[in-house]
Amino acid sequence: MRTAIRRHGVVLAAALLVFAIGGCNRGHDGDDTAKAPIAQAETGGSLKGDFGPPQGPDVQAVLTSPPMVPPPTGRHKPAHVIVELDVIEKEMPISEGVTYTFWTFGGTVPGSFIRVRQGDTVTFHLRNMPDSKMPHNIDLHGVTGPGGGAASSFTAPGHVSRFTFKALNAGLFVYHCATAPVGMHIANGMYGLILIEPPEGLPPVDHEYYVMQGDFYTTGKYREKGHQPFDMEKAIDERPTYVLFNGSEGALTGDKALKAKVGDTVRLYVGNGGPNLVSSFHVIGEIFDKVWLEGGTRFQENVQTTLIPSGGAAIMQFHLEVPGSYVMVDHSIFRAFNKGAIAILKADGPENKAIYSGKEVDAMYLGDRAAPNLAAVATAATAHEAGTLTQEDQVKAGQALFAGTCSTCHQPNGEGMAGVFPPLAKSSVLAANPKRIVEIMMHGLNGPITVNGKEFNSTMPAQTQLTDDEIANIGTYVLNSWGNPGGRITKEEVAERRKAPPPADAASGGE
Amino acid sequence: MRRNAALLSLLLPVAAALAGGAGPATKGGYVSLPGGHFRTALKYEDRKNGVAVAPFALMQKPVTNAEFLAFVQAHPQWRRDRVASVLAEPAYLSHWSRPDALGPRALPQQPVTQVSWFAAKAYCQAQHARLPSWDEWEYAAAADETRRDARKDPAWRERILGWYSRPSSGPLPRAGLQAPNAYGVQDLHGLVWEWTGDFSSLLVDGDNRNQGDGDKSKFCGAGALSMDDRENYAVLMRVAMLSSLQAADTTANLGFRCAKDLQ
Amino acid sequence: MTRTKTLRAGLACVLLATTAVIAAPVAQAPLPKDSVYQLPARLTDQQGRQFDWSTRRGTPQVVAMFYTSCQFTCPLIVNSGKAVEHALTPAQQRGLGILLISMDPRRDTPAALKSVVRKRGLDTARWTLASPRPADVSGVAGVLGVRYRQLADGDFNHTSALLLLDREGRIVARTEQVGSVLEPAFLTAVKAAVAR
After folding, report:
1. Is residue B145 predicted with pLDDT exceeding 80?
2. Least confidently predicted of A11-15, A125-129, C144-148
3. Nearest-CA distance from A224 to chain B in Å?
4. Which of A497, B11, B203, C26 is spaced 20 to 30 Å from A174 by Cα?
5. What residue spans of A344-390 are helical by DSSP H?
6. pLDDT recorded at residue B25
7. Which residue does chain C place closest to B81, by CA atoms?
8. Percent of chain B predicted with pLDDT > 70
9. CB A227 within 8 A of CB A268
10. Is C in contact with B (3 or more beta carbon pairs below 8 Å)?
11. Which has the higher per-residue pLDDT, A352 or B177?
């Protein structure tokens, strides 16, 4: 009986659709507006979202840790889905050398990604680990019912709560802990996403990724080392110390950058746990072909930057035409470069000069603050303080710095430019006096110089922005690259040499 | 004979003066608190203007593993292998190596944890004492080392929040390590959560967002407590904790201490 | 001659044994650890009779906590008890006890309890309204999972629940839905409990 009604319903809906489209076309000859997604009939929301009792065997929900997303459910009928989610309080790094006690769903910030289908009946088990200090609960924005489940899931440490709900509305929803004080529980990382697929599922793509922005409040300053406690006053005053994707600086950069290939279509499920800030989400170098605004049913097309409310989400999709590092930011831009709101999607594949001819985005855009391999520089700094700095550390750090500072002129392979910039590769000047590289960086070089038999006569400005250890690292890198004599320059050496008066051929630039 | 009496009559006042001058009186591990009018963070509708706390005595430190072991040995019906499950859940004293011995994971001077409200109540009754009420506990806990009511000081709040933000993975410190507060009581903050006699009267909506939206049929009568006082969130987190528990529950961070009426 | 004597002796033995068996109380199996009766609680009912609630062992009970001056939910609790009654056959009714325990023993004297019994026309063959000793109220509420707070004016804030205890005093069903309309699952559990 019910299936018959549903079938009739589908026919009715289809008929309505035809009418709607037909109606639109009647007035506009040769006009394509009828095909625009916004002209579709309503889905009917929760009133039409109950597809009846669950059928078939129980399904154990597959939960994934960020940035991965569970596979599509592939279901066509409502099911009984069992979700088991643990609450774990744990200390994790929030930035290099900085730790924080996070309260997590599933051991990660954001918490595990849950994926079900509209009409599913979900039995939710919330388990609070025995060594937790606090009671916790969960409010899923996709739940219709008191507190979104929070009232029924209040769980003391070492105990488990269970409640059941039917997913009546499709969409991408935030879930979070709602135990007093709610702001603190959210600020400590207790949020995640639940995707309630529309009944027909989402169109397939090559990659789906899970990204969630959050603001964090510590008593110490940004990047102040050591264990940092939560600062309630800063949270109330909405003055975050960190604004991060997926719970820590570097969570999605360097080796942990998201990966794709040229020609792929990528879909991002992006949430904003807050607790306070709204996100202006943008991917540098890409345009969102489709944005399901606020995680809802309709999509907009051709969007550069989309707003994701605090406690909200959005789905965006784009096709990759050229390789490179695509940097995701909150375009309230000081959050990206001074609070850590940066993530990277690395696309590999053949160049397509017709679409984009220039250099890789990251060499131009990131400056020295947010380069994905800044880790090498930080490692070297830490190692130097600990007294364990190796030549290899220096070479790695120097390489990163060289890319940001020197390669523009001397080229990434040290070849220089004929008649303009001397080569550094197999340099006769360095062969004669390797340590001279220190003075050249420190004071610049003015006037004629012969390198590898060719004459150059120009001015290299003094690199006054470089610190002693940066000069030491870059110098060590250059001396050990491209057939140069090798050797090592220490920070102390550079400091010593800085005390001496500048050489005769110093450039006058800088001071 | 008369000389002794004279000596005694000299010594007694001195002794009394010494006792009085050495800080709050301690008798068998209890400290006396004067009570009085108290502005509580639990702003129920029927006590918006504070409460009166009668003078009472409070244990200086939470009950330790060693003390609780002595109790279990004297009252074997409270051994974990004999106790009724309606009075203590399976995790009761699970960190002890044996029902009648502590073992390496339960050092004698650590506060006893994994104890249910029924067990705590029974221990206090055996001492001719009782569990403190929430009001008494909050009143005693409002003090820091020098002031009886330090709650307006953000530093007091920060210290409490600091404990919440430290993970539980480290070992539990001994009872009595902290400096006593202005009343002479130790370890009210930063060690373990503590049972109160009336924990189940902390009628809190598990969902914090229903500010003052009393669901009349859920808590028959006036609305549930709304916890929105930003100055007291540190204290109110304790309320959240206690309100999440049933009387037979235990947790790894929950202990207790006893109180006595003062005549 | 000897055989009759042995027979008589044997008969005497059997008679003695049977009498002994009949006279002595049946040695009860120990009370299960998850029975609420593990908590001693001395109650005084509407007739002034005092008893430990463990004497209810042997008959399934529908239990709730209330107080007589409660205006709002407690009348609904009585309605729930009546709804259970009406849903049972007379035979089933005979196998069930309905026990309402007051959280306000100071005011809920036997007289106060009796007036509720009269006003609501409760059949005392099944219904018992009783007050614990003041010091025992929190313990009883603790094992039943009821939360309550006395207000300044003597009224109470409290959660409401109907519990089903089996013959041994174990909680086998619980519903927070009070009033004339019962949660179907709870009613099913009551019927199953009185059947066994």
Report:
1. yes
2. A11-15
3. 17
4. B203
5. 361-365, 374-386
6. 47
7. C33
8. 76
9. no
10. yes
11. B177
Residue B212 at interface with chain C, using a CB cutoff of 8 Å: no
Residue linked to tokens 């006395």: C150
Verify whether the Cβ–Cβ distance B206 to A134 is below 8 Å.
no
Please state at what angle helix A391-405 crosses helix A374-386, rounded to 10 degrees. Answer: 140
Distance CA(A261)–CA(B217), nearest Å, equals: 58
Enumerate the H helices of A193-272 as residue ranges.
232-236
Predicted pLDDT at B159: 81
> C90-136, pLDDT tens digit by residue?
999 999 999 999 999 999 999 999 999 999 999 999 999 999 999 99
Q: What is the pLDDT of residues C151-188, one digit of tens each?
A: 878 888 888 899 999 999 999 999 988 888 889 999 99
Q: Flag whether residue B216 sits within 8 Å of chain C, measured between CB atoms.
A: yes
**CB A137 to CB B206 under 8 A?**
yes
Q: Take residue A325 and report the two structure tokens written for it.
A: 């590092």
Residue of A nearest to B162 (CA): A229
A166 within 8 A of A124, measured Cβ to Cβ: no
Amino acid A339: pLDDT:
93
Q: Does residue B203 sit at the C interface (CB-CB below 8 Å)?
A: yes
Beta carbons of A182 and B209 less than 8 Å apart? yes
Of A21, A36, A117, A116, the residue nearest A290 (C-alpha)? A36
Q: Look at residue A511 in the predicted model and tell me its pLDDT.
A: 38
Average pLDDT over residues A50-59: 90
Chains A and C touch (3+ CB pairs under 8 A): no
**CB C95 within 8 Å of CB C194:** yes
Question: If you search the block for the tokens 């004929």, which residue do you land on?
Answer: A418
Q: Do B246 and C158 touch (CB under 8 A)?
A: no
Across the interface, whether the CB atoms of A229 and B241 are under 8 A apart is answered no
Task: Determine the residue type at A138.
Answer: I
Asked if residue B204 has pLDDT above 90, the reply is no
Instruction: Output the pLDDT for position A389.
Output: 83
Give the position of tokens 């290899």: A392
Distance from CA of B209 to the nearest CA of A (A): 7
Contact call for residues A175 and A182 (beta carbons, < 8 A): no
How far is Cα C145 from Cα B10, in angstroms, rounded to an integer?
58
Query: Which structure tokens are listed for A282?
Result: 């943008």
Q: Do A134 and B252 touch (CB under 8 A)?
A: no
From the list C152, C186, C184, the residue with the least C-alpha distance to C64 is C186
Model ipTM over 0.85: no
Q: Are chains B and A in contact at 3+ CB pairs closer than 8 Å? A: yes
Please report where in the chains the tokens 């929760």 appear, as a residue: A46
- Asked if the Cβ–Cβ distance from C152 to B117 is below 8 Å, we say no
